[in-house]
């Protein structure tokens, strides 16, 4: 029964194309004028707004899986002359509960330089719990191997793909005048 | 949603089909992970004097211009989606979850108003007030981002911590986390220093893969590229 369950749900399950995101902003590669960034921070909802992007990954059954996801601005701390500014965005669509992405900018003269992107670690905890709960709610009889596969997928595939794609889209939006 | 629905239908269909020929003896038992579920404490009763104390401190901070403390309370109002300090306290109290984060040095002093909190997010460097964090005996979920913390030993005083995420933080050793008996989920995003080297060494002493804590093993295996 176990095999039938997974074979059939596999056939019906989510599919897509696996295309790892290669267009990721690396640390210290994006510089934004302080005044421009502060203006975006001060009214994130209107100047940045919701950001939607697509990402794909190989799921725990080794099937290609494609999703759209939307992150919305949550908070920003862009206080004049403070050395670090952090902008937070939260996932408000797609599968799984809300997940935050945090972008840190360090002051460099009158500009602010992207110095960190965080989200994959938080994402792992959220996605792995949700994934497991989802299948248990389907009355799936999960073996230890299934659970391990789900956790590994969350840690190594799903979260990196989603956070990389979403942060790239958000940063493109922020850096656009 | 359609896809979820279809998967759900498939699950129901297969469950129904298999119910008459699937005796309990042949059913694959649901195996637990290698560790038992974490012990969770009972909700702490909230001291009624905490809210007025918090409101007084919060309103006082909000009335002061241009300070990091004001930013901290502003963020608290934003993350709770409330306009007043009292309403923000109520949200934290009902969710038992708190987000303290400004990106700049965070005073952890406000934690004194929330000893009952079970989920906590901290964004930005911590002021030297880790003792406040260690008092959160009911804390079960903790996220630390962009902090300046290098030593996680102070977390070992949190007996019920079961889920930890550390990102953008120059952690140099995760071995102390093996002492957290209830830790079941751990993830970190490695941070590189100015020379591009990761702050967490990829060795057994700093990132053990033979720890008694599976969560630490898993995180270290991933960090160290061990299949």
Structure, explained:
The complex is a heterodimer of chains A (177) and B (227). Chain A is α+β, with helices and mostly antiparallel strands and 177 residues long. Chain A has a six-stranded antiparallel β-sheet. In chain A, α4 (120-137) packs across α5 (144-175). The longest helix of chain A has 32 residues, at 144-175. Chain A is built from five helices and six strands. Chain B is of the alpha/beta class and 227 residues long. In chain B, β2, α5 and β3 form a beta-alpha-beta unit. Chain B is built from six helices and five strands; from the N terminus they run ααααββαβββα. At the A-B interface, α1, β3, β4, β5 and β6 of A face α1, α3, β3, β4 and β5 of B.
Question: Given the C-alpha coordinates, what overall shape of chain B results?
Answer: globular
Count helical runs of chain A: 5
Radius of gyration of chain A: 18 Å
| Largest interface, C-beta closer than 8 angstroms, per-chain residues | A-B, 47 and 53 residues
Instruction: Note poorly predicted spans of chain B.
Output: 1-32
Number of helices of chain B: 6
In short:
Chain A is an alpha+beta fold and 177 residues long. Chain A is built from 5 helices and 6 strands.
Main features:
heterodimer; A: 177 residues; alpha+beta; six-stranded antiparallel beta sheet; 5 helices; 6 strands; elongated; B: 227 residues; alpha/beta; 5 strands; disordered N terminus
Write the layout of secondary structure elements.
The complex is a heterodimer of chains A (177) and B (227).
Chain A: H1 2-12, E1 31-33, H2 34-42, H3 44-47, E2 51-58, E3 64-77, E4 84-91, E5 100-108, E6 111-118, H4 120-137, H5 144-175
Chain B: H1 2-18, H2 50-62, H3 68-80, H4 85-95, E1 97-101, E2 119-123, H5 130-134, E3 141-145, E4 163-167, E5 185-189, H6 214-224
Parallel strand pairs in B: 1-2, 2-3, 3-4, 4-5
């Amino acid at each position: 029964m176990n095999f039938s369950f997974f074979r059939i749900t596999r056939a019906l399950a989510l599919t897509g194309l696996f295309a790892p995101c290669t267009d990721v902003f690396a640390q210290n590669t994006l510089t934004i004028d302080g005044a421009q960034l502060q203006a975006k921070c001060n009214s994130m909802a209107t100047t940045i707004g919701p950001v939607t992007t697509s990402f794909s990954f190989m799921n725990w059954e080794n099937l290609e899986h494609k999703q759209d996801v939307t992150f919305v601005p949550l908070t920003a701390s862009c206080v004049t002359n403070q050395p670090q500014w952090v902008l937070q965005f939260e996932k408000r669509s797609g599968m799984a509960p809300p997940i935050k992405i945090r972008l840190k900018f360090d002051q460099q003269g009158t500009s602010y330089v992207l110095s960190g992107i965080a989200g994959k670690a938080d994402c792992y905890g959220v996605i792995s719990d949700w994934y497991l709960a989802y299948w248990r709610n389907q009355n799936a009889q999960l073996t230890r191997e299934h659970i391990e596969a789900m956790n590994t997928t969350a840690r190594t595939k799903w979260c990196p793909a989603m956070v990389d794609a979403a942060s790239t889209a958000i940063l493109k939006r922020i850096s656009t005048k | 949603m359609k896809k979820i629905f279809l998967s759900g239908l498939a699950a129901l269909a297969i469950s129904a089909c298999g119910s008459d020929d699937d005796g309990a003896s042949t059913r694959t038992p649901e195996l637990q992970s290698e560790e038992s579920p974490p012990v969770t404490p009972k909700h702490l009763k909230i001291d009624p004097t905490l809210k007025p104390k918090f409101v007084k401190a919060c309103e006082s901070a909000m009335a002061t211009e241009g300070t990091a403390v004001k930013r901290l309370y502003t963020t608290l109002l934003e993350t709770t989606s409330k306009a007043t300090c009292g309403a923000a306290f109520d949200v934290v109290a009902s969710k038992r979850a708190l987000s303290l984060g400004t990106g700049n040095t965070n005073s952890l002093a406000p934690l004194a108003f929330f000893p009952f909190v079970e989920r906590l997010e901290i964004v930005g460097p911590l002021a030297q007030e880790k003792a406040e964090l260690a008092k959160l005996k009911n804390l079960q979920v903790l996220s630390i981002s962009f902090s300046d913390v290098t030593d996680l030993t102070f977390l070992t005083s949190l007996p019920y911590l079961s889920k930890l995420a550390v990102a953008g933080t120059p952690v140099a050793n995760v071995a102390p986390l093996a002492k957290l008996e209830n830790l079941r989920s751990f993830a970190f995003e490695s941070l590189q220093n100015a020379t591009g080297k990761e702050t967490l060494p990829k060795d057994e002493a700093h990132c053990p893969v033979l720890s008694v804590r599976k969560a630490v093993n898993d995180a270290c295996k991933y960090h160290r590229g061990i299949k």
